[in-house]
Amino acid sequence: MEKKKPRWAKIITIITFSLLSSVCSLSSRANEQPLQGGTLNVGLASDTPIIDPSITGNSVTALISRNLVDSLVGQAEDNHFTPWLATRWEINDNNTEYTFHLRPDVTFSDGTPLDAAAIKYNLDRILDPKTTSSYAKSLLGPIESITTPDNNTVVIRYASSFAPLLQGLSLPYLGIQSPTYLKKTLNTSNTVVGSGPFVLTSFVKGNGSRLSKRPDYHWGPGYAAHNGPAYLDSMVFKYLPESSVRLGALRSGQIQAIDAVPPANDKSVQSNRQLQVITRENPGVNRVLFLNTANGPFRDSKIRQAFLRASDTATAVKIAWFGTRKAADNVVGPSTLYYDPAVASLWGFDLANANRLLDEAGWASKDASGFRTKEGQRLSLHFVYDPSGLEAADITLFQAIQFQVKQAGFDLQLDPLDAGGQTARINAHDYDILSIYYVRAEPDILRTVFDSHYIPPNGYNYSQVHTLDDKLRKAVGASDSERKRLYGEIQREVIEHAYVVPLYIPAYQLGTTKNVHGISWATNAKPNFYDVWLSR
Predict the structure, then answer these.
(1) Does domain 41-280+508-534 have CATH number 3.40.190.10?
(2) Cα–Cα distances in angstroms (integers) from residue 490 to residues 426, 471, 472, 499, 530, in the given order
(3) What percent of the chain has pLDDT over 90?
(4) Which has the closest alpha carbon to 283: 525, 8, 28?
(5) Is the pLDDT of residue 29 over 60?
């Protein structure tokens, strides 16, 4: 007769069997070979008016165009540089000469060979002021010359040391496009012809993009998990600004991935066994409010300091983002090279101090509505923004800041505009506040937003400051220790002079169905889709 097992033995047997089953299942999934085919549908919360990465700094453009254009070099998740269009390169001792040796077998999707002349044409186009390549141009720095000793060699020279070039070249904003296409296309805002693993089939502003696989692609970046054509047959990026619509489409399986998981639904999505959420905090310039120091009330440093201290950003971010974003304590994020954590101690919410500063600045009176006045004028500020490029939580955040600063007497007026209207106001310097963030692990991103050369309409120095030029320009060619010192001083000066109000550390949040595999991440905290495949 079989001896009866004790109850605890049965429990152990069940647990052991379950664990073995789970391990076998995971092992099976880990060993599963990527499948070819299928369409990845991606829902996007924000739109881009321009798809050409050379003429915009829009992050949605970077996300889409990364699949269309290749770069001279790649940068892996651990920040090391890998071959791509260039198989190797040499850099002289003082970072004034970069020599790139190209793959000889690359072609653009229109059949044009990708050679040294094509690289030179792209870089010359970006440097040409007529192209209005503000962000891409800033990544290249003050190039002195570009030469092509032969069909597969490109030499970039600088008069003075420029250390950040490789990192800039790895970004899609400096992705290489077909010179044949560029020469015959007057308006490239809605088309791209590159050498990437996908081809742009269509792009419609306010709607989305459709991409199809290039079957002869075999020159992916060195950090990729495979070589050869992409696994997916196609990708569709759909503009779905309503968070409920975007999330509903993901839950129903109509789309397989969304960005900007609605903060209020974050926990419910993560608890759904059919879905997964992946979050990457961005390096670079945080979501901040740029205060216009050249025009209006913010010409006075005390007014800027008062506004900075009247903003309880930690509370506003927590409310607007339901705890899914971290409040920023600096102009740059913690994952940015040379980030200085000591800057956090230089500022903070202090309504009493804000009131004192406004009194000292001569805005001691208040009208019947509680707003500060001086010589019969109200202390009004105009915050210009384009809602289509923002998430709903950002709008809520701006409204929270509007309410908070009113307690000190600021009349903050929110001015929503379309992209064209916003650009016109920016170029006319008709604003007091603008908000944006920039994703880049290299601290040279600070030159893009604070060098006087990039004051609108020439770029993104929305605070319109001139005081940081010397340090920013020295830092690009300095030694590591000197760069760390200079960028630390720059971070402190930006906060001490209240050129910006830091809001939160941007993060890319990708929600996907569980049948999406192979996502990797670029150093600009964007997902790479070249290695992605769909299980059945």
Answers:
(1) yes
(2) 24, 7, 8, 11, 37
(3) 86
(4) 525
(5) no
- For residues 69 and 194, the answer to whether their CB atoms sit within 8 Å is yes
Q: CA 28 to CA 32: how far, in whole Å?
A: 6
Boundaries of every domain in the chain: 41-280+508-534, 284-505
Three-class secondary structure of residue 44 per DSSP = strand
Single-letter amino acid code for the residue at 163:
A
* H runs (alpha helix) in 146-256: 165-169, 179-184, 243-252
Structure tokens at 73: 């070099």
Q: CB neighbours (10 Å) of residue 210?
A: 18
Q: What does the alpha-carbon distance between residue 399 and residue 377 come to, in Å, rounded to a whole number?
A: 23
Residue 36 DSSP one-character state: P
**Strands ordered across the beta sheet of 208-213:** 198-204, 208-213, 234-239, 39-44, 257-259, 507-513, 275-281
Task: Indicate the CATH number for domain 284-505.
Answer: 3.10.105.10
Strand ranges (E), 166-308: 198-204, 208-213, 234-239, 257-259, 275-281, 284-291
What is the tens place of the pLDDT at every residue in 345-387? 999 999 999 999 999 999 999 999 999 999 999 999 999 999 9
* CA angle (127, 132, 136) in 5-degree steps: 55
Using omega within 30 degrees of 0 as the cis cutoff, is the peptide bond preceding 142 cis? no
Question: What are the tens digits of pLDDT across the range 279-296?
Answer: 899 999 999 999 999 999
In angstroms, the CA 139 to CA 137 distance is 5
Write out pLDDT tens, residues 451-481. 999 999 999 999 999 999 999 999 998 999 9
187-218 pLDDT tens trace? 999 999 999 999 999 999 999 999 999 999 99
Question: What is the number of residues in the chain?
Answer: 536
Continuous H helices in 163-242: 165-169, 179-184
pTM for the complete prediction? 0.80
Name the residue type at position 526: K
SS3 (DSSP) at 330: coil
**What phi, psi does 201 have (nearest 5°)?**
-85, -40
Taking the C-alpha atoms of residue 74 and residue 290, their distance in angstroms, rounded to an integer, is: 31
Helix (H) or strand (E) holding 122: helix 116-127
State the Cα–Cα distance between residues 153 and 156, nearest whole angstrom.
10
Distance CA 68, CA 138 (A): 22
Residue 265 DSSP one-character state? G
**By the 8 A CB rule, do 146 and 156 touch?**
yes
Phi-psi region of 344 (alpha: psi -120 to 50; beta: other; left: phi over 0): alpha
d(C-alpha 471, C-alpha 474), whole Å: 5
